[in-house]
Specification:
Layout (H helix, E strand, L loop, with lengths): L10 H8 L5 H9 L2 H17 L12 H24 L4 H15 L10 H14 L2 H12 L7 E2 L15 E5 L4 E5 L7 E4 L8 E10 L2 E11 L12 E5 L12 E5 L2 E4 L8 E3 L5 E3 L9 H31 L18 H36 L6 H29 L11 H11 L6 H20 L10 H4 L10 H23 L6 H21 L1 H4 L14 H11 L23 H35 L1 H4 L4 H20 L4 H21 L1 H4 L14 H11 L9 H11 L4
Parallel strand pairs: 1-5, 2-5
Antiparallel strand pairs: 2-3, 3-9, 4-8, 5-6, 7-8, 10-11
Helix pairs in contact: 2-3, 3-5, 4-5, 4-24, 6-7, 6-8, 8-9, 8-10, 8-11, 9-10, 9-14, 9-15, 10-11, 10-12, 12-14, 14-15, 18-20, 18-21, 20-21
Length: about 725
């Protein structure tokens, strides 16, 4: 049981827990959404803990193939229980609570992720969001009971961000009432879909729809890709694993290439558009971007995912900081817990408040998402652009902040935080990917900026805007508004903070004790203060500049400001009578600027002398026009070698102290540029992306094909675990 005291707990941890100013159980209930939800969560957790197989050998010590097989074994066991639990649930709310609990508990079994992640996270949501009612009735039960295992293949080798640029084609053939899928180029190969490499037998494929010779843009299709009995890839497609990556190592991300692969007409997911038997295209959607719906849903989910992952990282770091003692503050006294260092608290506490900021905002965002969905069911898509802007913005910021905060948690654990067994590296690898997938950080912020600029135009025209962006209208003074994209984006960050404050205050306003309210208020204030300090510059509502003032009174303002300086409040500063100020020459940063200049001067003089001798020869050989095209690194190498050798020649007759100084200058020049140009000095990049010939897609595919999992068409875990599971014989 959860609250049973555990023997042998570290004394420092016990002491910290004793010092807690509030009832932990009360906070747990708040996070779970109520006492009943906490009880239900624990019931499910205990049941899973009793029935789930744990790893005997740590996951990270296995080979890539063993890791995958182990992940399939555990996924099958977990999902067997999950499917049974889901079948007992009747209400939508219970189902969402259960899914959340299963998602959370699954992390106890996977340091990496399950190969079923995309099935649960995107395949099922896309069926719900993109299929017609009849299609939902057919596909949903199969997917929910895991009779089929699916994934979501949108990204291609050549395009991920720019969806309209996808190249896979689905051409309707009215004679056979089928679509023909093709990958016309190497860059059109589907790439990245999780679970595609070895596990999935179905796949949502996003392709350009052609009918009657016209292209109607990208549409989702649901496609069987492997034989249900033998698991062999179907004829007309090539499928495999893309190769090792930073994290997601057990997600078997895959590639998929089509060659005249035929699928029935009703493979098109027909909620928002249909193709009739005769090939007529019928648009149903009221908004052209409704086919992007699953991405919005997952972006919303990711806010809570980030709260969860950061909560794990910061729990690890805080507990360890209570246990870890380091350094001698006072002679003969015990070393302090590292948690007591203010600098350590600075690393940790902002992460704690960030977890709550994300979780409260996520609860609110999910509610907003469901409200917009409900409106759209009745044909009202007015709130969709704002939901897109909001989910894009919050997804971008929370994934970015979360991976940075997890990195801080790792720093807070010193060397041991670098151990895989600390779980911090895996948490980092998982979350840093979220900054890229489901919409790259920069790209999503630009989508939000686009929305804000359009809103601003409406404000200027005096038109009404939604409550979320009404603050734009409150800035009557143009000077107060920073129009740069960064300013706009950061203004939106401030709103996220505002949501957190109002939501956290609302959530703790009933029932909860004063102790919890105090803690939540402190966390909320910490989060707001932290970001106010981090972004002080953005919060200044005028330009605060003597040079950029509206009236152009530059010199008057410079003088006014100068006179305000405290140094001008007394005619003679006391340092006149006391110690002199240091010379700027004594600052290391100043020396850094100057010494390299001196070294360069010598280098250039030596090289110039040498160059003079050979200049005529070089110009006659290369032609004057070509000499200036010598690459920078070549020039740098010449400076270095000439400086080095010429200096040696000329210093031999000098006195020893001068020789030493000049030699130091040579070394300084060489080291400085070695550090500055580290990147250029690495001759062997060992990279598929950075090869000299730019054959990026060819190399990615060549590497993927070398991948050991691709040496066998069907992995043995299919026969051992997957097949008996799918067929209900496990
Ligand atoms: C045990 C149980 C467990 C269960 C639960 C598990 C949970 C675990 C959690 C998580 C698991 C999931 C793991 C996922 C793994 C990764 C999956 C993937 O990565 S799948 C690929 C994602 N790919 C992208 O996200 C591409 C990003 N690109 C885009 O989204 C678009 O292409 C974009 C937005 C960049 C540009 O799209 P344009 O070129 O078509 O549009 P433009 O021309 O720029 O804009 C036209 C108009 O459309 C609007 N627009 C664009 N997107 C919209 C949208 N989505 N909705 C509404 N409007 C949109 C724009 O705002 C603009 O509006 P105006 O003209 O200004 O009014
Ligand atoms: C672990 C992982 C799992 C994934 N799983 C799946 C999956 O299951 N299914 C799937 O379909 N996809 C999946 N993806 C793919 C993922 O969705 C894409 O990688 C992501 O959307 C980014 O697209 P991209 O790779 O084309 O990057 P690019 O768009 O090529 O980005 C490269 C750089 O260009 C910049 N850039 C691009 N466009 C613009 C612009 N308009 N303005 C300014 N800067 C720009 C970006 O900011 C970035 O710095 C996965 C990716 C990862 C890493």
């Amino acid at each position: 049981m959860r609250n049973k005291p555990i023997a042998n707990v570290n004394a420092d941890l016990l002491k910290e827990r004793k010092n807690c100013s509030f009832d932990i159980e009360e906070l747990t209930n708040l996070i779970d959404g109520g006492k009943n939800q906490t009880a239900r969560r624990r019931e499910i957790e205990n049941m899973l803990l009793k029935n789930m197989p744990f790893d005997i050998i740590p996951e990270e010590c296995l080979s890539a193939k063993e890791k995958y097989e182990n992940a399939v074994r555990k996924s099958v066991a977990l999902n067997k229980i999950g499917v049974e639990l889901v079948s007992q649930v009747t209400k939508a709310k219970e189902l969402s609570d259960l899914t959340l609990t299963l998602r959370r508990v699954s992390d106890a079994y996977f340091r990496e992720v399950t190969p079923f992640l995309l099935h649960l996270g995107m395949f099922i949501p896309t069926i719900l969001g993109q299929c017609s009612d009849e299609q939902v009735a057919h596909w949903l039960p199969l997917a929910m009971q895991l009779k089929i295992i699916g994934t979501y293949a949108q990204t291609e080798l050549g395009h991920g961000t720019f969806i309209r640029g996808l190249e896979t084609t689905a051409t309707y053939d009215e004679r056979t009432e089928e679509f023909v899928l093709n990958s016309p180029t190497l860059s059109s190969s589907k790439w990245w879909a999780g679970g595609l490499g070895k596990t999935a037998n179905h796949c949502i494929v996003v392709a350009q729809l052609y009918t009657k010779g016209e292209c109607y843009g990208t549409h989702p299709f649901i496609v069987q890709i492997r034989d249900m009995d033998t698991h062999m890839p179907l004829k007309g497609l090539k499928v495999g694993e893309i190769g090792p990556r930073l994290g997601f190592q057990t997600a078997d991300n895959g590639f998929l290439v089509f060659d005249n692969f035929r699928i029935p007409r009703d493979s098109l997911m027909m909620k928002h558009a249909k193709v009739l038997k005769d090939g007529t295209y019928v648009k149903i959607a009221r908004h052209s971007k409704l086919t992007y719906g699953t991405m919005i849903f997952v972006r919303v989910l990711l806010v809570s995912e980030m709260a969860f992952n950061l909560s794990k990282a910061v729990t690890i770091a805080v507990r360890y900081s209570a246990v870890r003692r380091q350094s001698e503050l006072k002679p003969n006294e015990p070393e302090p817990q590292v948690l007591d260092y203010l600098t350590q608290q600075h690393k940790l506490f902002i992460s704690i408040s960030t977890v709550y900021a994300f979780q409260f905002t996520s609860n609110w965002l999910m509610k907003t998402y469901h409200t917009v969905q409900a409106n759209m069911k009745h044909g009202n898509t007015d709130a969709l652009p704002e939901l897109h802007a909001l989910s894009s913005c919050l997804k971008a910021i929370c994934t970015s902040d979360c991976s940075a905060a997890i990195e801080q948690c790792r720093f807070a654990c010193g060397g041991h935080g670098y151990m895989i067994s600390s779980n911090l590296p895996s948490l980092y690898a998982f979350t840093t990917a979220t900054r890229t997938y489901e919409g790259d950080y920069t790209v999503l912020l630009l989508q939000t900026a686009r929305f804000l600029v359009k809103t601003w135009e409406q404000v200027e025209l005096g038109n009404a805007v939604t409550p979320m962006v009404a603050y734009l209208a409150r800035h009557q003074n143009r000077e107060a508004w920073d129009e740069s994209p960064e300013g706009i984006i950061r203004a939106f960050e401030a709103i996220a903070a505002g949501v957190y404050q109002t939501e956290s205050v609302r959530s703790v306003s009933f029932g909860q004790s004063d102790a919890i309210k105090d803690v939540m208020k402190q966390l909320s204030d910490l989060y707001l203060l932290y970001w106010s300090l981090e972004r002080t510059g953005d919060l200044l509502t005028t330009l605060k500049s003597t040079l950029g003032s509206y009236d152009g009174r530059v010199y008057e303002r410079l003088m006014e400001e100068a006179l305000k300086s405290p140094l001008n409040q007394e005619p003679v500063n006391e340092s006149f009578h006391n110690e002199p100020e240091p010379q700027v020459m004594d600052f290391v940063s100043q020396q850094h600027k100057l010494f390299i200049g001196i070294a360069s001067y010598y280098s250039y003089s030596m090289t110039a002398l040498w160059l003079w001798d050979i200049l005529t020869k070089v110009t006659s050989e290369l032609g004057v026009g070509k000499t200036d095209r010598l690459p920078e690194s070549h020039g740098r190498a010449v400076f270095m070698s000439v400086f080095n050798s010429e200096m040696e020649k000329s210093v031999s007759s000098l006195s020893a102290p001068l020789q030493a100084v000049l030699r130091q200058l040579v070394e300084l020049y060489l080291y400085y540029w070695t550090l500055e140009k580290r990147g250029d000095l690495l001759l062997v990049l060992q990279s598929t992306l950075g090869s000299y010939d730019g054959r990026v897609y060819e190399r990615l595919m060549e590497e993927a094909l070398k991948n050991p999992p691709n040496k066998e068409p069907v992995n043995e875990s299919f026969h051992k675990y997957l097949k008996p599971f799918i067929q209900g014989k496990l």
